[in-house]
Every structure is written in structure tokens, then in C-alpha cells.
Amino acid sequence: MLNSKDEKAGFTLRAAVIAVALSLFLLASSSYIAIKIGALPWPIIFSVIVSGGIIKLLTRSQRLNIHEINVAQAGASIGGLIAAGIVFTVPGIIYLNQTRDLDITWPNPYLLGLLTVVAGLLGILLSVPLKYTFVDEEQLPYPAGTAGAELLKLGQTGGRQLFFILMCGAAAALFALVREIYFPAGFTLAGLTFLGIYVAILPLPIAVSGGYILGKRTGLAWFGGAVIGWLILIPLLTQRGFTREPAEGIVENLGMGIVLGAGIGFFASYIIPRIRRIFAPMLKSRGIYFRLLPLIVLLSLAGLLFIGVPFWASTIAVLGVFIMVAVAARMTGETNIDPLEQFG
After folding, report:
1. What is the rounded CA–CA span in Å between residue 44 and residue 20?
2. Which is nearest to 117 in space by CA: 79, 77, 70, 74?
3. 72 in a domain, yes or no?
4. What is the pTM of this model?
5. Does residue 211 form part of some domain?
6. How many domains are there within the chain?
């Protein structure tokens, strides 16, 4: 909502154009990042800085409209998040064809794009009403969103903090460029290989910054899982006769199983008992979101049927979006991590 009558609305043609352009850029760059490191830090910070910078250049001496920047960065961030949905699922076809000797046909890129757009719209329409439950009522921290909001405030006030953030960003960009040129594979600690421990260090500023935003609890939990899996379990498996690739496969499958089990437990213990309260704002709403929802649901179902997905599988997929949106909203709000490719 706007704070005063003097403030202008944020949804402008300029904000929409910036959002689309940055969304396409983040779609490509986020795909590369996700494939390279197996995770995708939220692109909100980048979107805020670039959107604010472009709007500042266009407005020149005029006062920045924080709502316009917010609209532009929100639309831009969608490109990165959609990239995650594609990169973490579709390449599985290549993996299955190569490792299981299957012959799964690669999906038509135009149909894949259409389904991605429809699924994205459905997810957004379901997410908007959940704001009242997870943001207004439960007041979950949403670390990346909070960081983006603080950056928006700094964009209005300026000062040393904003200058420091920009300098850190420039230094990180320069370091990443030098790393990719001179040591793209990182560094290896060869002194531990005789113990069956293979440690490769790839310095990633984007991962370090993600740890800052995640906070102590989530960051340490993520780091602890890596230590247990790669420095304890894999060496133990190699000492018992497993070669490196099967040992890594066991650890990765173990991690996937833990994520899946935790997600099912969370859904059963949290979402189901509160499902009426979680979706109540959506059912009470009479805005454009509520009116568009049935149409988007039907389009999603029709799209899946059109490309040959069986009826019951299509129905489960569409209903699964309702469940996954609620799970994602809660998990992201609390931990800033959204491993829905495993849940799906």
C-alpha cells in the first residue's frame, strides 16, 4: 500500500518493461548458476540494485518511487525462479537417457515455455493471498525479501551503507571474473586424498553472500550436511570398497530422501491441520486473483492434457501446485530455502 496520497503507484509501463528485460536476463544467468553449483540463491538483491539503478538513470533528478522499483524487481526475480523450476527438473531427461539407457523424448521447447508460463501464473495467483497468513499473521522473516526491502530503503536515503554495498558487489564481480579465467575448477586439498577424503574448494562470492542472508541456523545446518556427507560418509564408504561415483550417489540419494521425508512430515504436521486458515484469505478474496484462478487452473490442466500427460497425472500435477505453494511459502519464509524439485 502507498504511504501517502503524494506517492505514485508502482505499476508503470517503465517498471513492466524493466521487469521483462531483467527477467529474461535472469532466466539465462540463473540457469547457468543453478547448473554450476546445484543451487540457486534468490535473485532479489540483484534485481533491486539493477532495477533501482535503471530507474534512477531514467528519472535523473526526480525523486525515486520505491514502489516502482519494487514492481520492477519483483517481476525480474520471477525469471530467476522460473529458471530454477526448469533447470532442476528437465535435465533429468538427459540423465535418465544416459544412465538408464532410456529413450525419453525431449519436450517441445514452445510447449515447455507455455506450460512454464501457465504454471508460473498459477503459482503467483496462489501465492498472493498467502501473504496474509505467512507475512501479516505469522510474520515469518523471509530473509531474502527482508534484505531486498532494506536495500530499497537505502536506495532512497543513500549514504555510506549503499556505497559500501555497491563496492562489495563490484569487488565480488571482479573476483568471480578472475576466478573463471584463471582457476575455474577451484583448488584441491591433495594432502587428504590418502585418507579417502577428496576436498575441492571453489570460492563463490554468491554462495558466501547467500550464507550471510540465510543466517546462522540455516547456514550451519546446510554446512553441516555437506560435512557429514562429503567428509564423513563418502570416506567411510570408500574404505568399505565403494568407488567414488557410487559413494557420491548413495550420499546424494540419502540427502534427497531426507528432504523428501522432512517435506512429507512438514506437510502432515503443519499444512494439513492449518489448511483452512492458510487458504482462507484466497477463498474470501473477491479481487482479480480470485476471478482468474479458475481460468488458470483450467488452462494448466488443458496444457498438460494437450502434450499427452494422462488425465489423472495432470490432475495430480495441478492439485500439487496448491500443496507446493503452501509448503514453499512456509519454508522460504522461515529458512529462505525452497527445495521443491525434490518434493515434486
Report:
1. 15
2. 79
3. no
4. 0.72
5. yes
6. 1
